[in-house]
Amino acid sequence: MPSSSSANNETDKLSAETLYSDRASNYDTSNGGWHVKLGQDFVRWSAPAPGSAVLDLACGTGLVALPMAAAVGRDGVVVGVDVTTAMLNLAREKKIPEGAARVEWVEANITEELGEVDAVRHVVAERGGFDVISCCSAFVLLDDPTSVIRRWAGMLRESGRLIVDVPTEDLTMQYLFMSVLSTKLGMAAPYDREWVQSMHSLERMYEDAGLVVEKSWRTKSYIPETWYEDKESVRDDVFDKQTRELYVRFAQEGRQEDARIAWRDVWKLGVEGGNGKVYEGYPVYVRDSKSYMMKEEKGPSTLGVAPLILCGRPTTGECKPSPGYME
Q1: Among residues 318, 285, 211, 207, which one has the least CA distance to residue 45?
Q2: What's the mean per-residue pLDDT of the chain?
Q3: Residues with Cβ < 8 Å from 305, sequence gap 6 or more?
Q4: Phi, psi at residue 13, to the nearest 5°?
Q5: Of 103, 144, 244, 273, which has the fewest CB atoms closer than 10 Å, so is most exposed?
């Protein structure tokens, strides 16, 4: 299990604030705008009732918080918390949907500082906690996720839901560039996903926090899936395209040519992990934790780094499945 003593600790990891400040301006539209779709699905999966209180952590540009606000309506409450000023500034500029709850945007660390956020304290005091806490595309950026889950679970109402996603253990293009290649060059990696060994890696965290994990499924890829042939020309074209459009930090830090050379070995790793081809895609594992038990939904397994989305509720209390939640 990961802990604060993980090898990929605060001093070794690329600052989330630095990473997302650089990406803020094109975050919503990058790679076909898949973050927007994932944010909408987060809301569909959690299906907050009108009037609910929602806490969206690592809210970024508001891709989860704003559709949550529309779902809960004027009688609801939505608090979006993020550490990156540039992302929050973009969120604040967006129009709140008509009839939606007002969103309170807060700049703060989503781990240790949450208990000091006035908007969070107010909801916990007045409502007994949040109905939904979400953290989309950010959980593996945290240093001590086990402790974080416990803190977040303590902010849920008795029937509240916690929905989180993490990448799987598969070798996708994103993982090869952001983690393997960066590490090979001695550069700080933005996240630690090495502790994710299977679709079940987060279960113990949830159970330790008093939550019950119930349902799992895997979605289609959020970006067009591509299987790259193991050819030198393909390998070089992929490197040029990816470092030009997405992974620009190698050039920014003067390591582009070093990265190009190191990419040859990283590519081989991707070929081995992809049974002779290198995979690019972003399917999603979804896992739901509530206070009642459901059978795990089984489906075909496909290769790819997919965030494992966990949704949890406290082990006490009664709740029923939401019709809008089922995949």
Answers
A1: 285
A2: 83
A3: 167, 168, 169, 170, 171, 172, 174, 175, 281, 282
A4: -90, 145
A5: 244
